[in-house]
Structures are given as structure tokens and as C-alpha cells.
Design brief:
By secondary structure, this protein is an alpha/beta fold. It has a single domain (3-278), classed as Protocatechuate 4,5-dioxygenase, Chain B. The chain is 34% helix and 21% strand. The chain has ten helices and ten strands. The strands form two sheets. An eight-stranded mixed β-sheet has the order 6-3-7-2-8-1-10-9, sandwiched between helices. A two-stranded antiparallel sheet has the order 4-5. β9 and β10 (269-278) form a beta hairpin. α1 (14-21) packs across α5, α4 packs across α6 (160-175) and α6 (160-175) packs parallel to α10.
Amino acid sequence: MARVVAGVATSHVPAIGAAIDHGRTQEPYWKPLFDGLEPARRWAADAKPDVCIVVYNDHASAFSFATIPTFALGTAPAFPPADEGFGPRPVPVVEGHDDLAWHLAESLILDEFDITIVNEMPVDHGLTVPLSVVFGQPEAWPCRVIPLCVNVIQYPPPTGNRCFSLGKALRRAVESYPQDLKVAVFGTGGMSHQLQGERAGLINPAFDRVFMDRLVEAPRALTRIPHTEYMREAGSEGIELVMWLVMRGALSERVDEVYRFYHVPASNTGYGLMVLEDLAGPRSDR
């Protein structure tokens, strides 16, 4: 059967994608950050996941403010890079795994998660930057990708607890798929940052580091953080961290922290990257 073997957490800073695309990764500003990505890339080259489920948020590329699903699952065989105003990123088309995606949709909906099924969807930097972070600049992405889009743009976003529970349901769904596949779940977005208002430019490294600690040691404590605390401590865009909880919920209680990296600044955010391998093996009763 399919199994969740690992989780990856990473910020999806658009400027990281621009630095990669324009050959600026070795400039003095960017080199420390990109040097910090190399261990995660080596891990991915060794682990070779068959499918990556990437939990991210759309930035008005696939969805306008006319329609905002709380959770949307991409079920298409392929997803083109979105044009976010400067032309699509020069990255490979994202090849989906539509059979597994439809299985996930059925399992999640019957598990009482109201998933929006999306059969055609361009994917923006929220999804493509994490792929670039982990896989670099290949001619084709080395795995199939299933996009799972979460609303953290329009109030009210889902709670951390709901996202953690979605991750648990996602694990059950993966484990009920009969094909032998290694699945990695990406939680993207964050860390602390605010893009507008009087506190624009806010970065809170202390909050970010505690969040990373608890993601490994005490993830259930993170599920109790209210929206207002994210905004107060991590800025208005810090709410994106609830997407890391989808990833953590998809893993068992026992994980091996393979790698952790934190860097300030990355554009106007605190950048975080974690690789967690699952140690417990398949357990559908979680």
C-alpha cells in the first residue's frame, strides 16, 4: 500500500524563486540561504519520494476573491505554472497523480472533510518555490505532485486543529491506496512575516524557533494557537503556518528530525526548512 514516509516544511517566499530563476543564488545576500538548502536536497535525492502532496495557499492565481475554497484538492493529470504578472516561472509543468488524487478526494470527503475538487488549476509560487527548494532546477520534477490548497488569505481561515486533523485524515487516505508508493507531504508558507500595515516587515525569530521545536516535540500544543496569536506574534501572514500542521498531522507521533534550517532575512520573512521522517510506519487507526 501507499505510505507517508516523510514531511517537509518550508517557507514559499516568491523572491527565492526569482533568485533561482535569474541565477542570483550565489550573490552575497542569497548564498547563505541557498547553502542551507543543500542538505534537504541531498535528502530528497536519496529518499526519492514517488508522490509529493504539497499543502500551500493560492495567491489569487487559480482562485479570485469571487470563490475561495477552504480546502481544494487538485485532481488533474498536470498543473501549469501560473502567470503571476511577470510570466510563468521557467519551471517544469507539475505532473499530477490523478488516480491517487481522486482516491484522496473520495476518502477525505467520506471522512467528512468538505474538499473542493479542482480539475484544472494553475499553480503559483506557493507550490513551485517549495519544489525548487527541495529539487533544484531539474528538466522535469522527479516525482508526481498533488496540490492541496488551503485558504489563509480571506478570513476566516481554518484553525490549526482543523488542519492537523486534515493531515491525520490524509494519512488514512494514503494508507488505503493499494499501490506501493512513497509519499512525502509538504507543509508550506510562513514563517513570521507581515507584508502591509504599520507592522510591515515584522519578523519574530523567537516565535519561529519555538514553533519549529514544538512541531517535532509537541505538535498538539500548536493546534491550540488561535488566529489572533498568529497575527500578534508572527504577523498577518504568519497564519500560513497552519499549513505546516497539515503536514505534521500526516506523520505519526514518532518522527526523526533529519534536518532543520532557519535564516533571516529571506526577502521580508523569516525562512524555515525542516525535514521529518516518519518512524512509526503505517497506522490507519491514528
